[in-house]
Fold this sequence. Notes:
Helix content is 20%, strand content 26%. By secondary structure, it is α+β, with helices and mostly antiparallel strands. It has a domain at 8-50 and 86-132: Aldolase class I (TIM Barrel), CATH 3.20.20. The chain has a 4-stranded mixed sheet. The chain has a two-stranded antiparallel sheet with strand order 3-4. α1 (91-99) crosses α3 (123-132). It is globular and about 50 Å long.
Amino acid sequence: MRNSESMTPKGCIFDIRRYAIHDGPGIRLNVFFKGCPLHCQWCHNPEGQDPLPGLIFNQSRCLGCRACKDYTLPQACPSGALETCGTWMDVDQVLQTALREKLFFDRSGGGITCTGGEPLMQPGFLVSLLAAC
């Protein structure tokens, strides 16, 4: 049993996608871990390569207003072109999301897919999450 919040491992997650059907059997919940050492040119999720939360810039949304010129406050961008990518979550937070999908998992034979980035970049959190499932 965990006695303190500091002992609860946290993982840096950049997305959780519900109702995923392409990454395993049945209906799945895809949990996208931040961090990957490979930096492949063909990476499908380059926003997940950096292991820490950071900012991403979506040029197609940019109005050119320069409200975000220092790139430190994503809230300053009126069009949402500057976004925070990644948030620290504990196992219980991920499981709360997964429990909302339990009926779909049970009926379809689905479950959770840990993807990324590279989940093995956060081994303590990954093991704790899998053990809790």
